[in-house]
Amino acid sequence: MALATRTDKRPSLPRTVWDSTVGKKTVMAVSGLLMLAYLVAHMYGNLKIFFGPGTFDGYAHWLRVVGEPFLHYTWALWIIRVVMAAAVVAHAVTAYQLSRRDRAARPTKYVHRKARTSYATRTMRWGGVILGLFIVWHILDLTTGTVQPGFVPGHPYANVVAAFHEWWNDVIYIVAMLALGLHIQHGFWSAAQTLGAGSKTRDRTFKTLANLLALVLTLGFVAVPVAVMTGLVS
Amino acid sequence: MRLTLRIWRQANADAEGAMTTYEIDGITEDMSFLEMLDALNEKLILAGDTPVAFDHDCREGICGACGVVINGDAHGPERTTTCQLHMRHFEDGDTIDVEPWRAGAFPVVKDLVVDRSAFDRIIGSGGYVTAPTGAAPEAHATAVPKPAADSAFEHAECIGCGACVAACPNGAAMLFTSAKVNHLNVLPQGAPERETRVLDMVARMDEEGFGGCTLAGECATACPKGIPLTSITSMNREWLRATRKAGR
Amino acid sequence: MNEYTRYTTGEPVVDTKAPDGPVEQRWSRRRFEAKLVNPANRRGRTVIVVGTGLAGGAAGATLAEQGYHVVQFCYQDSPRRAHSIAAQGGINAAKNYRNDGDSIHRLFYDTVKGGDFRSRESNVHRLAEVSVEIIDQCVAQGVPFAREYGGLLDTRSFGGVQVSRTFYARGQTGQQLLLGAYQALSRQIAAGNVEMHPRTEMLDLIVADGRARGIVARDLITGEISTYFADAVVLASGGYGNVFYLSTNAKNSNATAAWRAHRRGAYFANPCYTQIHPTCIPRSGDHQSKLTLMSESLRNDGRIWVPEQRGDDRPPNEIPEDERDYYLERIYPSYGNLVPRDIASRAAKNACDEGRGVGPGGQGVYLDFADAIRRMGRAAVEEKYGNLFEMYERITAENPYEVPMRIYPAIHYTMGGLWVDYDLQTTVPGLFAIGEANFSDHGANRLGASALMQGLADGYFVLPPSLGDYLARNPGLAPLDDDHPAVAEAVAETEDRLRLLLSVDGDRTPDSFHKEIGELLWELCGMARTDEGLRKALDRIPQIREEFWRRIKVPGTGDELNQALEKANRVVDYLELAELVCLDALHRTESCGCHFREESRTGTGEAARKDEEFSYAAAWEFTGTGTAPVLHREDLAFEYVHPTQRSYA
User: Fold this and answer.
1) Distance separating alpha carbons of residues C262 and C271, to the nearest angstrom
2) Contact B46/C292, CB-based, under 8 Å?
3) Cβ–Cβ < 8 Å for C59, C73
4) Considering CB atoms only, which of C179, C196, C250 is closest to B156?
5) What is each CA distance from B162 to B116, B165, C241, C377, in whole angstroms?
6) Using the beta-carbon criterion (under 8 Å), do B131 and C137 form an inter-chain contact?
7) Is B36 found in the same domain as B131?
8) Within 10 Å of residue A223's Cβ, how many Cβ atoms?
9) Deepest in the core among A223, B104, B160, C550, taking most CB within 10 A?
10) What domains appear along chain C, each with residue ranges and CATH number?
11) Closest Cβ opposite residue C509 in set B42, B53, B130
12) Which residue of C has its CA nearest to A5?
């Protein structure tokens, strides 16, 4: 007599995920964590520059031959590039969709405004945009060399040193890395919550880990332009 | 004390609203915030003006009817409901801004009154245990471990006032929804509907036009009952678990 | 002499429809004898339920589950906010989980005795029987009751009862039980079985061809007056404690639904039985809008006192021990601070009347924890009462660990209400009243943790079969529409009343009248009542009423959200109900339970019942505003629990 209040027909898993705010956040969290893992490796590789051009250029070459003979030359690198591109797109699209939705859900602002959340939390959206633009610049600068007049393919050490000899390019990189740090500080902890990993007892651990990751990545990445500027690497 | 109040006045849902300034004198520090508004309304009625409409009922901090944004804070500067906020937390000569809950899913009805029926529909979509009257087994048939019972209670304390939505920069209802999902999902009685409950309630929450969660934490700061932010984490976990199971 | 006091006595109520036979078999007999509605026919039967508290919420959900079409109303913006939510202490049930000698019979016995022998044995026994099922039902719904480490339900003793039968969810039992009922109701709303109308207030009852067939209600947002028709109407609209203005009720709790039903022919029973709770936070000034209750459990460890000398305005900590009067311990040495609610309340009033009250206006007594802190240590006191102390401090800004609390009694619950028979049906066929809105189970005094029990018993278990019986016996009720003269009259009356309220345009606010009538009642018909005082009140009430219609000012229009209009319309009914409360108190020249007549006392000054004269429920019939009502007596028989005089000295 009491009518059934639920239907058993459910949308497919991808549909459920994509249609839900919680699902979209999951997409953001997973893509974010993938990019984070990539960044850790990227930063680690960057630091090889302190061991001189031989080590650094050798490492860059190894990246192209890794997986051989199973994989063909640069295939591994391309796989990583494709995965990263997909992650960036997924992250950006869901972020854009969720942001639009969030704005619509709060159409009227309070007359009496008050900011209480941390700077990192408030700057997630614009920080994300800055990082997106930076990725484009970074690829044009040090991967394709399009914007770097003296770019020589196959000589990453020289290219890096040349790029960071421009003061304004250093500023771009340092600002972007600071934005990255803030983004990771809230993003990593946030991803943990979205994926349901957080709890009252683990909250501190995740916060500490997020701060640590943000700090290490920022310092690790900033170290290179600073080293070039100060002449430590030349 | 003497106060300057700037209150959001809006004749009805379709009308334009504006902040209107009132001066009020003779407020004592033992008055509750709502009693201060009562005093203003008595004055307005006698002056032939329309009194300020606001929701309120139990005035004990449990029914969840009251709630306004005071100087940018949902329920004001103390961590309690508006009815339990007392004027001793303000100073003589203060200017106080009073605004309704702001969220797309909570349209203003009049002045400080908003429509929170979206919450009821979220509950209707799955925030219950299907246990028709008379069908219940003996209460002691299922023992509930104390930690589970305590956790259920902690979440069940939610009074549905909507402060979480009002405080959220995205107008999200995640804290409210998660409180109810967790209350029932940690109990053995709630287990048979564990997956459908979280999937349906989250879907309904989205349909109602609430925003998404950016874990800004404003909701938990504003919650007069202290529902923790980790409640949202637990719901996310439940949701992912349910999605995986439903996908099989 | 006041015209209103010349009431006449009508036919006594002889048949309450309670089955006879052994008391423990009556309820199952009634259920068996009840006619059933064929499940296939239930969808075509509509039931209106007014109110969504424990009784209304439970009834709406259950009736819808059984297949009836339910149309339900509440004035709040959500059914979850009904004032049952504010109940703190707990809910009684004769589970005997503690193996401490509890049983259905003992709960029955305690409730009849606690009600000071002014309730119906059949009803109370049924309540005790059903109490057991309530706990099962609530647990199945996911109500998070307190539990022991073994995972089983915890219980505590409450309200001076010697067994531990009170189930609780910290200090929020009412909230948790209500959420259980609300969730069950929400499920039925989503399923389309309940048509829910929040922010809609019942303003009149439609009685057509001798039967309750619908209501007139106002949409509080648009102001639209609409009619709703049904095969039966259930009132679950709560008590009328707010007639006293200051009470522990919610601000908008009101008597309108019940009073309008009374005006349409439903008898109103025992209106003078109003319960006063001894441990409330005293008022702090004229602005006070309501009173806040603190759990009675505070009296387990706190000591109540006032200064020995009248007008002693030294701070409490400077008053030496030998200049304090621990009056409860002095007058009632064996029970001390744990005497029942009514006695503790009256003693506090007496102390204040002697000019020894403390705090603003001298309307308060101290509840001192200094000894308890010394004995148990501050940590132990905090563990036990921390949340209450916190609540007290938030409201008063005084720290009860350092200064004694100030408390004063306040109106809390009304045992009186619409007269109902064993089937919870009023004297208007097809109109049922459940929960606090009826008068049925508590007699002249309600025991702690019994209100939640009664509300849920009525809603989940008692009403559904009784209502089914009525519907089964009245299968072919003619369809109704707005053209029926009874409907048109009810609508016109409602619209006229609202129009009149808006048109007076006087110089006094609705609240000012509400306060005035409330203060008058509290003063003359509160904790202690006298013939002289009640007559004075009865003289004064018609004057206030007359003044109300001359001087009321309601701004705005009727076509919008107009809270002043809502309030004014409720005050109209308080101004009539107050009169009946006073008359009932005047006619009952005995003291019983919460009704204390100064003239009826024992040698030691305690309340004295007069069983030969007053062993009946007084059911009043309405005859017109301000005109003397008709009294119908329902004699009470006590076959199982024999009346004794209470003594606590």
Assistant:
1) 12
2) no
3) no
4) C179
5) 7, 5, 29, 39
6) yes
7) no
8) 18
9) B160
10) 277-412 (3.90.700.10), 489-616 (1.20.58.100)
11) B42
12) C191
**Domain final residue pick, B55, B77, B110:** B110
**Which residues make Cβ contacts (< 8 Å) with residue C249, sequence separation at least 6?**
C83, C238, C239, C241, C242, C290, C411
What phi-psi label fits residue C627: left (phi over 0), alpha (psi between -120 and 50 degrees) or beta? beta
| Other chains touching A, judged by 3 or more CB pairs under 8 Å | B, C
Residue B217 to residue A117, Cβ atoms within 8 A? yes
pLDDT value for C387: 82
Q: Which residue among B29, B55, B131 places its CB closest to the CB of C141?
A: B131
Angle, in degrees to the nearest 10, between helices C563-587 and C510-525: 20
Asked if B16 and B30 sit in the same domain, the reply is: yes
Minimum CA–CA partner of A2 in chain C: C65
**Domain end residue (candidates: B110, B136, B159):** B110
Is residue C341 annotated as a catalytic residue, yes or no? yes
Domain containing residue B49: CATH number: 3.10.20.30
Q: Residue C584: which of C636, C547, C631 has the closest Cα?
A: C631
Structure tokens at C90: 């707990």
pLDDT of res. C543? 97
CB contact under 8 A, A200 and B228: yes
pLDDT at site C161: 78
Q: Which residue of B has its CA nearest to A113?
A: B72
Regarding whether B28 and B123 lie in a shared domain, the answer is: no
Q: How far apart are CA C19 and CA C31, in angstroms?
A: 10
> Contact, C256 vs C573, CB < 8 A?
yes
The CA-CA-CA angle for residues C575, C581, C582, to 5°, reads: 95
- Name beta bridge partners: C233: C48, C431
- CATH code of the domain covering residue B151: 1.10.1060.10
Out of C118, C211, C263, C341, pick the active-site residue: C341
pLDDT-derived band at C162 (thresholds 50, 70, 90) equals: confident
Whether ipTM tops 0.95, in short, is yes
Q: Kindly list the residues from chain B whose CB atom is less than 8 angstroms away from the CB atom of residue A184.
A: none
Q: Output the CATH code of domain A20-105+121-226.
A: 1.20.1300.10
* B225: nearest Cα among B167, B160, B166: B160
Q: On the CB side of C90, how many CA atoms lie within 13 Å of its CA?
A: 22
Q: C398 in helix, strand or coil?
A: coil
pLDDT of residue A4: 47
Per the structure block, which two tokens stand in for C25? 């078999």
Please, what is the end-to-end C-alpha distance for chain A in angstroms? 82
Residue of C nearest to B53 (CA): C563
Residues from chain A contacting residue B203 (CB–CB below 8 Å): 19-20
| Rama region for B76: left / alpha / beta (φ>0; ψ in -120 to 50; rest) | left
Whether A91 contacts A191, CB under 8 Å: no
Query: Does the pTM exceed 0.80?
Result: yes
| Cβ-nearest to C39 among A1, A3, A4 | A1
- Please state, in angstroms and rounded to a whole number, the distance separating the CA atoms of residues A180 and C625: 76
If you search the block for the tokens 């109520």, which residue do you land on?
C13
pLDDT, tens only, C18-63: 999 999 999 999 999 999 999 999 999 999 999 999 999 999 999 9
What's the structural domain count of chain B?
Answer: 2
Residues whose CB is less than 8 angstroms from the CB of residue C210 and which lie 6 or more positions away in sequence, other chains included:
C429
Q: Looking up tokens 């004898």, which residue turns up?
A: C33
On chain C, the residues whose CB falls within 8 A of the CB of A5 are 187, 190-191
Is the domain of B126 the same as that of B209?
yes
